[in-house]
Amino acid sequence: xxxxxxxxxxxxxxxxxxxxxxxxxxxxxxxxxxxxxxLLIALRFSPEVQGYYYTFNSLLALTTFVELxxxxxxxxxxxxxxxxxxxDSGKGVVGDANALSRLASLARVSFRWYGxxxxxxxxxxxxxxVVFFAQRPSPGIQWVGxxxxxxxxxxxxLVLVPAWSxxxxxxxxxxxxxxxxGIAVVTNLFxxxxxxxxxxxxxLVILNGANLAVAAAFFARRYGDFFRAIRSSPRHxxxxxxxxxxxxxxxxxxxxxxxxxxxxxxxxxxFQFHGAIVAGQMGMTLSLANALLAFALTxxxxxxxxxxxxxxxxxxxxxxxxxxxxxxxALAVGGIGALAILGGTYGLNAIHSRLALRLLPPLLVxxxxxxxxxxxxxxxxxxxxxxxxxxxxxxxxxxxxVAVGVTTIVLGGRYGALGAAxxxxxxxxxxxxxxxxxxRHCQSAWHVTDEGASG
Length: 455
What we know:
Blueprint: H1 2-14, H2 18-44, H3 47-60, H4 64-67, H5 70-82, E1 85-87, E2 93-95, H6 97-134, H7 144-159, H8 161-169, H9 173-196, H10 202-222, H11 224-229, H12 241-263, H13 266-274, H14 276-301, H15 304-312, H16 316-350, H17 362-386, H18 394-415, H19 417-454
Antiparallel strand pairs: 1-2
Helix pairs in contact: 2-9, 2-14, 3-13, 3-14, 5-6, 5-8, 5-12, 5-15, 6-7, 6-8, 7-10, 9-10, 12-18, 13-14, 13-18, 14-16, 14-17, 15-16, 16-17, 17-19, 18-19
């Protein structure tokens, strides 16, 4: 009994509810699975194939340019409507008729948008990738077939994005994170088998195909009634995309587009200027840093629907308490993870492991890890502010994205990974100052305005 109470107290202190637990397990599995994948890639792929592998992943992130941040907007709008809705025993939706009608309207707009985005991604990525890789060919690397099939699967996966966002916004994150964990396990197992069996670049095709199939099965089996309930035409109030969604979406879209230059441009630049081997080292290093960022942000991201509901109920004191606690937990977990990554990297180099040659040198790994910790804080603040259905980080995000993109191309092209890493860290620190100032101003001004309006 004492042990049970102690474990419960620890979980409560750390802010670990079911959503955080599954989200954390999924991210932990991603880190563990990613480590196994890194090991298998180092053992079974040539350095050149490793470079293509990670460059494929970086170019696939260009789907941001057709998605335009709508997934984040969907989650925030859904959370506000869900404050007056619930699921019945059969997973149907019950509650306020106007809220249900607006949720149905939001779903219709979302699936139409992503259907168009998926088709555009298939065409644009397929053609653009062929042009990009053809400029610096590597003899013996068969990349055309895997790339084109991968683009098709990526387009289909885009169509499922609104399903995830709607469920997350409707307070189903404990279930969606559990599903994400299961999907991560299944896709990793498929990927490992593909690597061991010599699938090469087709590994990414197998991984994405498994992801798509399992996700579609999850939606159909567990939430079929939910999607049928919100599939019907709105009978009462409807969401006005032009007046409600677009004013927030275009701001988040620019922020997301900037995010590509901040997080995903490094590997293609290394590929273009320094070849597939350096690109592979950069890609593997970034996979570790991004895993750290994703893991730490789980503590805040899983609270996004709760943020939206508290704002809808005007419980700003509760909102700020929840945000402060979850952000502190995210930074603490991120710091521990950063030390683990740095220790492991230095250890691999100390024993002259073959795996160490597939990563950037320890100093550069450290620079990217510190940048990931800064991004954790910025991501937490952005989650809080966007829960208000506003995007005040538009200007700093765009400026930071442009600055990082320029320094990555200029410094990365001339000085390699060292120039790109230093430029990224310096700009992360410089832009952190106005981002914190904006957060503190909005946190104060918005709540005073809303409380005055509600009174």
